[in-house]
Every structure is written in structure tokens, then in C-alpha cells.
Amino acid sequence: MIWILLRLNLIRLNKTLFLPKVAIFVLLNRAMKGTVYKSTGSWYTVKAENGIFYECRIKGKFRIGGSKNTNPVSVGDHVYFKTETKGDETVGIIYEIDARENYIIRKSVKLAKQTQIIAANIDIAFLLVTLNNPATFTSFIDRFLVTAEAYSIKAVLLFNKVDTYNKEELEEIKYLAALYRNIGYECVAISAKTDKNIEKVKALMKQKVCMFSGHSGVGKSTLVNALEPGLNLKTSEISEQHQQGQHTTTFTQMYDLSFDSQIIDTPGIKGFGVVEMDEEELGDYFPEFFKLKQYCKFNNCLHIEEPKCGVKKALEKEEIAWSRYKSYLQMLEGEEEHYRIDNYGNE
Ligand code: GDP
Ligand code: ZN
Q: Ligand 1 centroid vs 128 CA: distance in angstroms?
């Protein structure tokens, strides 16, 4: 078993904005459908299809998309609930949740072998990449992409700060964008500062639930500000210190944006989740390796020393990128933690 661990700083949003309006007037006992915007573990803030936010609880065991399993509800879940009124308090009771398109997990802090669901039904995960200040290495990009593949989440690479690059650096961006486009990933060169291609990002985000990831300092807060000026993000460092200093508990939360899009913010969770997989599975999450697998002699080929390996052949012909193969070997060997520490001192 190998674990792919991704630790990125995710955006922190200003908590005072977009606070849900809790419904005061509700119809009793009407079944409603909604989406979970916030979860504290015992209370769930659900936005119903009528646009009103309801504070909900779970009662007893309930079914998930027809299965008999019980599972905690998470941000992004599509749920069914009914309202109940006791005295002057009205709460929603969640009784069923739809099957999840996907979900991202983290290892439980308390119980090492258990995992917790961070968020569900994510349409797009954007990774912000910068060449320097800070440097984003291909090994890091590849781990992000593997995780997204394993989660079945569409991944998009945003090469930020293009306003700062010289000719050589712009060439490097072009090279990287071509490399990843070739594999099938959408890539956009942007500047969160000068608004370059911000409209393109908005177009990709439309009617989608989105997440933004990337090293601290790549420009996540600046980008979200450019996308939705009212959000007024703090930089992650400041808000991290702030959180630690105040010992506040923050929760994953979904926010509506003005252009028909949602962002999921996971404060305090440095990561795009973790994925557990078997060795043989890893290559399947490199789409260009997966396509070549049919040419490998052994169907459980790890593409290392095996004879007649389609991936190695393509590599020798430079039809696939060495940087991708190197990332693959690193992940296979489970060296990602070392690699991350060596190269990303800021984390
Ligand atoms: P975060 O940690 O990912 O949220 O990064 P921030 O949004 O706080 O950005 C880190 C620094 O990079 C800030 O000083 C920003 O002004 C700067 N920055 C972000 N995007 C750009 C960009 O597109 N161009 C330039 N020149 N600077 C940027
Ligand atoms: Zn092979």
C-alpha cells in the first residue's frame, strides 16, 4: 500500500462574508433537497433548492443513495431533509443523501488508520503553479494530478504570475503547459495581479464546485479576490497565525460566487486530501501511462524493470516526459515526504 499525501495551502476566505441566512419561516415537514455548505460534525448548514439556508441535524441512521451504509454528511453533499419545530426553534432533519460523485479525504488526526471526508462532489480542482517565489516542481504538480485522477476530479493547472516572468521563464511555462496539455489537462497562463485570463478561469468555474490549491504564496488569495472582489481574502500565512493564536476552530465551507459558481474552502486542512492505492494502481492515474499499458507484456507491469514494457518503450522514444516518469518512481517508492521537505521548506 502506498499513500499519496498532498499538503498544499488552500485558500482562506473571509468568514464574515456569505454567512448563511438561517431560515426563520419554514414550512413544516416538507421534504426538501439541498446542498451542504458547512458542517461542524453535529450541525449542517444546508442551502435548499429555494435558496434558503437551513440548520440541520442527522437523526439516527440514514441511507446514502440507496446503500445501507451510514456515513457522516460532508460539505458538498446533496441531501434530503425535513423541518421540525420545537418551541420556537426550527431545525432540518437530514434523512438521506445522494451518492457522491467524488469526495476527498484526510487521515484522521486522532486515529491514524481512519480517514475523514473533507468535502464531496467537487467538479474542478485548480492547482496554481509558479516557477519561482515559490517554486512549484513538476513532482508536486504530478502528485496533485494523481490525487485528482484517483478522486475522479477534473484538474486544471493555472500558471500564475505570468506578468513577472522573463522570456526564458515564459518559454518554460509554454513547455510545461504543452507537456500537460498533451496528457489532456487544461492549462491557463494567468496573472491574478493584472487580471490576465481571469475571465477564462471564470468561464471554467461556471456552474461548478471548485477548489483552489497550491503552495503558500502562489497567489490563491489574490486570485480569488480577482474573481470575486468582495471576498477580501487574507493571505494564508496571516490567517494561519491568526487561527493558531486564537485557537479558533474553523470548518470546511462552501461559498457562492456572483458568477454562478461555488468555492470550497478548507481552512486548517493543508491538503487536497490523501489517496490510498495499491502499487499496480498508481500507473493508471498517469493517463498517458494508462493508455500504453495495453502494450506491456504483463498486465500488472509496474513499468520499472519488466521486459516488453510499453511505458518504457515510449519513454525511450521520448513520447512521454521523463519528469512524469521520475515523479511516478518517486511516488512508487513513497519518497514524496522527503522530496516535499527538501524542496518546499515553506511547508
Ligand atoms: P496565497 O498564499 O497562495 O494565498 O498567495 P497570495 O495571494 O497571498 O500571494 C502571494 C504574493 O504574490 C502576494 O504578494 C501577491 O501580491 C503576489 N501575487 C499573487 N498573484 C500575483 C500575480 O499574478 N503577479 C504578481 N506579480 N504577483 C502576484
Ligand atoms: Zn509497463
A: 11
In testing the pocket of ligand 1, which one of 222, 237, 263 has its CB within 8 Å of the most ligand atoms? 222
3-class secondary structure for the chain? CEEEECCCCCCCCCCCCCCCCECCCCCCCCCEEEEEEEECCCCEEEEECCCCEEEEEEEEEEEECCECCCCCCCECCEEEEEEEEECCEEEEEEEEECCCCCEEEEECCCCCCCEEEEEECCCEEEEEECCCCCCCCHHHHHHHHHHHHHHCCEEEEEECCHHHCCHHHHHHHHHHHHHHHHHCCEEEECECCCCECHHHHHHHHCCCEEEEECCCCCCHHHHHHHHCHHHCCCCHHHHHHHHHHHCCCCCCEEEEECCCEEEEECCCCCCCCEEEECHHHHHHHCHHHHHHHHHCCCCCCCCCCCCCCHHHHHHHCCCCCHHHHHHHHHHHCCCHHHHHHHHCCCC
Nearest ligand to the C-alpha of residue 131? 1
The last residue of one of the domains, among 45, 76, 97, is: 97
Q: Ligand 1 centroid to 254 CA: how many Å?
A: 23
Within-domain flag for 26: yes
Q: How far is the CA of 263 from the centre of ligand 1 (A)?
A: 19
Report yes or no on 314 lying in a domain. yes
Q: Which of the four pLDDT bands, split at 50, 70 and 90, describes residue 232?
A: low
Domain span at residue 303 reads: 279-340
Residue 187 lies in a domain: yes
Q: Is 245 or 325 the better-scoring residue by pLDDT?
A: 325
